Amino acid sequence: MESTIRTTGQDCYNNVSKGFADLKVASLSDTGRAQLTKLFRLVPALGPVPDDLTSFYLYVFAAFQGIIQYTYDGRRQANFQGLDIGTACGMMTNTSLGSELERLAAVFFLDAKWDYGMGDSDTLDVTYVNNMQPFLNTSIDSGQCGGDV
Predict the structure, then answer these.
(1) pLDDT by residue (tens digit) across 71-113?
(2) Confidence check: pLDDT of 147 > 70
(3) For all residues of the chain together, what is the average pLDDT?
(4) Which residues of 55-73 are buried (b: 16+ CB within 10 A; e: fewer)?
(5) pTM, full prediction
(6) What residues have CB less than 8 Å from 89, skipping those under 6 apart?
(7) Dmax over Cα atoms in the chain, in whole Å?
C-alpha cells in the first residue's frame, strides 16, 4: 500500500501517514475518541476498549486497502465512478477538506458509500462484539446463510 500511495504522490503519502498517526493519537484519549466518534459518525461512541479500537482501525485501514487493491483491475463499477487511488490522493491533498484526519475520514466515507452502502447521515458501529455476532451463530439452519437451507 505504501508503495502505491507514494508512487501516486509524495504529498499524498505524507498526508495519509499523518492522518493515520493523528488517528492513533486521537484514539488514546477521551477527547480524541469523542472527536473520532463525531468525525466518523460512530454509534455507539468509541471508547477505550482495545478490541473496539482495533475494529475501528480495521475499518479505516480497509478503506485504503480496498481502494488500492481494486484501482487497477477495472472490475468494479465503483472504479469507473472515481473510487480509485487517484481520487483518494486528490482528497488527501485537498486542504479545503480540513486536516489530514478529516481528509482520512472523507476517503473512508467515499469507500464506505460503495462497500457498506453508507449514506451521508448513516452511522457506523465498530464495536468488536457487535461485529462478531454474525460469526457466533454456527447453525446452518438459522436463516442467516442467505438462502433456503
Answers:
(1) 877 666 666 666 889 999 999 999 999 999 999 999 999 999 8
(2) no
(3) 88
(4) bbeebbeebbebbbebbee
(5) 0.84
(6) 5, 8, 9, 12
(7) 52
The mean pLDDT of 124-139, rounded to a whole number, is: 85
Domain boundary assignment for the chain: 2-134
3-class SS at 27?
Answer: coil
CATH code matching the domain that covers 2-134, chosen among 1.10.1040.10, 1.10.260.40, 1.20.120.980, 3.50.50.60: 1.20.120.980
Q: How confident is the model at residue 134 (pLDDT cuts 50, 70, 90)?
A: confident
Q: Name residues whose C-beta falls within 8 Å of residue 51's C-beta, 6 or more positions apart in sequence.
A: 128, 129
Instruction: Return all residues near 144 (Cβ < 8 A) that are at least 6 apart.
Output: 134, 137
What span, in angstroms and rounded, lies between the C-alpha atoms of 125 and 131? 8
For residue 76, give the C-alpha cell: 468494479
Flag whether pLDDT at 141 surpasses 70: no
| DSSP-derived secondary structure for 47-100 | -S-HHHHHHHHHHHHHHHHHHHHHHTT--SHHHHTT-SHHHHHHHHT-GGG-SH
